[in-house]
Amino acid sequence: MMFQIWGGFHLPVQVHYAIAWGNINLFDFNNHLQSDKVSLHLWPVPPGLDDLLNPIGVRNLDLILRSNPNKDSPCLELEFTHRNHPVSFPPHDDIVDYGQMVVSQGIDSVPSSRGSSVSPSFSSTPIDIHLDQELLQDIVKRDPLSEISEQEKEFLWRMRQQCLSVPDSLPKLLSAVKWNSKEDVAQMYLLLEEWPAISPESALELLDCTFTDLAVRQFAVQSLEQKLTDDQLSMYLLQLVQVLKFEPYLDNHLARFLLRKALLSQRIGHFFFWHLKSELHQVSIRLRFGLILEAYCRGCGAYLKPLCRQVEALEKLTKLTDSLKTERDDVQLKMLCNHVRQADYLEALQNFPSPLNNSYILGELVVEQCDVKPSKKRPLELTWYNPDPMAECLFKDFKILFKNGDDLRQDMLTLQVIRIMDMIWQSEGLNLRMIPYGCLATGLNVGMIEMVRNSRTVFQIMNQDLRAAIGVRSKELHRWIREKNRNEMYEKAIDAFTKSCAGYCVATFVLGIGDRHPSNIMVTERGQVFHIDFGHFLDHRKKKFGINRERVPFVLTEDFIRVIAKGSDNPTKSKEFHNFMELCGKAYINLHKHANMFITLFVMMLSCGIPELQSLDDVGYLRKTLGVEKTEQEALEYFQQQLNEAHGGAWTTKLDWFFHWVKHRN
Predict the structure, then answer these.
(1) N or C, which terminus of the chain has less Cβ within 10 Å?
(2) CB–CB of 316/349 below 8 Å?
(3) In the structure, what pLDDT confidence band is assigned to residue 620 with cuts at 50, 70 and 90?
(4) In contact, 364 and 350? CB cutoff 8 Å
(5) What's the number of domains the chain is made of?
(6) How many angstroms separate the CA atoms of 340 and 365, rounded?
């Protein structure tokens, strides 16, 4: 049950606005109906988010099922009818038995049980099995945000037995259930008893706040237990931790499933720990996440000590960066080196597992290579030796950027999705040489980012040359790659550049990543392109004086096309560029086929509170870029138009880059 307190004032038109909100379960964890008096302390409504409130919770807020711990907050005194004996919610088996009785007696055929909204064309037309199956498949294929008409819901309910042969139709069928009808609910429970396990992607959809029924959520978890591999769980763990907020009780099937998996796999447990700990600053979920975190720590055995070492190291770095921000720029580096040489820092900052990847051990801190970056938040560039005996054959050190003051959750989500895109491409035989480097939020505006070895920004490669910045010298990037890769290495570098450029063109277009300037596009010495700093996505582009600075769907400048065309003077007419465009098309179509999964992952993250992911309208941008309502051919033609616009409007990108050069050349 959800409560909202509204205020208002009289102007020429009366205005209403939300003051506070809260919700409470009518049945407690013992399935007993509430009785006697209950004090419900309410939560303030964030400014401008009144319209996001809905009866099943708040998509962009945490689904809070307890009072606000701040006792100074507004409070509702609710008085439920007192009974001498507790009133209990019917056991699951009793509901299923009732469903069997409904089916045997044909109660659901009574018109009043389904309302009067049935369209004659759906109810009276003789059943054509072939057409029904086609319509069913059409509805099932729709993305999670597509609307289903009342007539289509009636059709789905009529076809509920046939839906059993299409397991992934379950989310759509559940939307057709009239949850205020005990006959419908009982029959749905009966169907769930024999429903086959659904795919992990469909199971994830059932764990969003849209589906609040406990039996449905339990079925989703059971499907994950049967179908989800550990690698897939690692890939989706960020979202699964977020949807713990939608569980009505602290002890629930999803929490038990994640705890069990975390305790069985140290790799999963490591990130499970950090995803929980990073949000403990939020008062609304502190109790829930704190209890789960405690349960994990009590069961993880010897790995608790390495986790404590990581926490201690990050606390030291956070304290250090806080003090550095108060010092003059010219003394910050010296202060950093002096601090990390102190005994307590030396002990805390060496020989512990990397939070970014617990299979790597950060050895001795290389003080001489540490630096304070010049950006506003003063991130620390830190280098550790690799103590692995095979380090000479692998890599000798680890470079990590520690940030204190920036919200890394958006970067973390973007990189996770790019990693999933790469997984999809790899499964289709496309190795696009992507570099989804490590990024981990470890607390409130605190986190770590992996620094990619032997790479430079496009801005650095241009050597801050004005002619390169404005496009007069568009061969500068190609010249740099050729200098770094002699003889047979050159062809490999061009191939790596072409494939990675295609991958990031498609990824940045689909995700609507903005603020793409030469300082956040990087190239490795072996030719791989990759993007960094994802502060703007889902088409939240940077503006100057109210004007959108970025006017192309993604960055594809002449510098890049010349590299792809191996320095040709007419690069867009080259065979290499034609092959590049075909590669982009293949990569895009592969994502188009998995559009529903990407939409589900972003919907599951709405409760996270990322500034540019606040509502379904933000997620709706993915529906556009992934062409969810288009056929495969139509989607390919749509992307081809975007590709032509990108390299046709490259001059606008270069103009934006020129102003970036003017601002940052010193």
Answers:
(1) C
(2) yes
(3) very high
(4) yes
(5) 2
(6) 8
Centroid of chain to Cα 215: 26
Residues 463, 459: Cα–Cα separation, whole Å: 7
Identify which of 485, 570, 486 has the alpha carbon closest to the alpha carbon of residue 528.
Answer: 485
Residue identified by tokens 């990050």 is 314
- Three-state DSSP at 541 gives coil
Residue at 173: amino acid letter = L
SS3 356: coil
Q: Is the pLDDT of residue 195 over 90?
A: yes
SS3 463: coil
Q: Side chain identity at 132, as an amino acid letter?
A: D
Nearest Cα neighbor of 375 from 215, 592, 532 is 532
652 pLDDT above the threshold of 60: no
Using one digit for the tens of pLDDT, what is the confidence trace for 166-179?
999 999 999 999 99
Comparing C-alpha atoms, which of 298, 218, 225, 299 is closest to residue 251? 218
Tell me the average pLDDT across 273-280: 96
Question: How far apart, in whole angstroms, are the C-alpha atoms of residue 280 and residue 282?
Answer: 5
pLDDT digits over 203-251, tens only?
999 998 889 899 999 999 999 999 999 999 999 999 999 999 999 899 9
Buried b (16+ CB within 10 A) or exposed e, 471-504: bebbebbbebbbebbeeeebeebbebbbbbbbbb
Question: Reduced to 3 states, what is the DSSP secondary structure of residue 492?
Answer: helix
For helices 266-277 and 230-242, angle between their N-to-C axes, nearest 10 degrees: 10
Select from 48, 80, 112 the last residue of a domain. Answer: 80
Q: What is the pTM of this model?
A: 0.89
CB 217 within 8 A of CB 211: yes
Looking at this protein, which amino acid is placed at residue 403?
A: K
Report the distance separating Cα 474 and Cα 563, nearest Å: 10
CB–CB of 527/496 below 8 Å? yes
- Tokens 């002890």 -> residue: 251
Taking each helix axis as running N to C, give the angle between helix 476-484 and helix 488-511, from 0 to 180 degrees, rounded to the nearest 10: 130
Three-state DSSP class for residue 318: helix
**Vertex 607: Cα angle to 24 and 617 (nearest 5):** 115
The string of DSSP codes covering 148-196 is --HHHHHHHHHTHHHHTTSGGGHHHHHHHS-TT-HHHHHHHHHHHHHPP
Does residue 634 lie within any of the structural domains? yes
CB atoms within 10 A of CB 407: 17
Residues near 643 by Cβ (< 8 Å), separated by ≥ 6? Answer: 505, 556, 581, 584, 585
Residue 76: its H or E element? strand 75-80
Task: Count Cα atoms within 13 angstroms, Cβ side, for 255.
Answer: 19
- Provide the CATH number for the domain around residue 24: 2.60.40.150
* Residue 536 burial (CB count, 10 A): 18
Lookup result for tokens 């956040």 = 520
Cβ atoms within 10 Å of 526's Cβ, excluding its own: 16
Name which of 299, 295, 286, 201 is nearest 252 in CA terms.
Answer: 295
Range of the domain at 58: 2-80
* Domain assignment of residue 52, yes or no: yes
Residue where the block lists tokens 């010298």: 473
Residue 615 inside a domain? The answer is yes
Domain end marker among 56, 80, 104: 80
Mean pLDDT in residue range 497-502: 97
190 lies in some domain: no
**How far apart are alpha carbons 630 and 436 in whole angstroms?**
29
Can you read off the two tokens belonging to residue 474? 């568009």
What DSSP designation does 618 have?
Answer: H
Q: What is the CATH number of the domain that holds 611?
A: 1.10.1070.11
CB atoms within 10 A of CB 379: 21
Q: Which residues of 539-550 are buried (b: 16+ CB within 10 A; e: fewer)?
A: bbbeeeeeeebb
